Amino acid sequence: MARTRRWATALAVLPMALIPLTAQSAAAEPIGGIPHNRYSIKVTSVHNGDVNYNKMLASCAVAVGGTCSISRSFSVQRTIQVNLGVSRDFVAGQIGFSKSTTATVTSQCNSRPFTNSRQVFRAYPIGVKKRYNIIRKTYLDGKLIKTATSSGEAFNPTGVSCTLS
């Protein structure tokens, strides 16, 4: 009878070691692994000295024959377009721009003499414009399963351009 009890105790412990994972633990890891994205940036064009005429910084006007000056510092937005889930900081690093959202630029502009009363002297940000493609490659279990591409544009202010018109 002592032998029977020992086997009964051993059998009662054994099933505890063979219990499968709970449903909660098994659901935490999806079947087939987790997809991972890898990003790259390919610059398609660079324009140095690009004037952003959509963002006037300052202006002045005077009577015919007079001149005016625009001499001051401006805080100008550094724009970086993102898409496909890539971060702004990643794109900035890949294209060689600061990740800061603004840049301080200073103007020292003096107009030539005004020739008519409708002319205005205007200051605009000037800088580097880069166009690029954002490429996202999605991998599952080490195999490429999807590639997506989106275009973007970034502007890095470097100074001020002034025009009389």
Walkthrough of the structure:
This protein is an alpha+beta fold and 165 residues long. It has one domain: Proaerolysin, Chain A, domain 3, CATH 2.170.15. Helix content is 18%, strand content 49%. The chain contains 3 helices and 7 strands, in the order ααββββαβββ. Strands 1, 2, 4, 6 and 7 form a 5-stranded antiparallel sheet that branches. Strand 6 (121-140) and strand 7 (143-164) form a beta hairpin. The longest helix is centred in the first third of the chain and has 16 residues, at 2-17. Keywords: Signal. Residues 1-25 form the signal peptide. This is Secreted protein.
SSE topology:
Elements: H1 2-17, H2 23-27, E1 36-51, E2 58-60, E3 69-77, E4 79-80, H3 88-95, E5 102-110, E6 121-140, E7 143-164
Antiparallel strand pairs: 1-6, 2-6, 3-5, 4-7, 6-7
Quick structural summary:
The chain has 165 residues and is α+β, with helices and mostly antiparallel strands.
Poorly predicted runs: 6-29
Average pLDDT metric: 86
The first-level CATH class is given as Mainly Beta
CATH fold descriptor = Proaerolysin, Chain A, domain 3
Major beta sheet summary: 5 strands, antiparallel
Keywords: Signal
Signal peptide: 1-25
Protein name: Secreted protein
Keywords:
Proaerolysin, Chain A, domain 3, five-stranded antiparallel beta sheet, two-stranded antiparallel sheet, 3 helices, 49% strand, Secreted protein
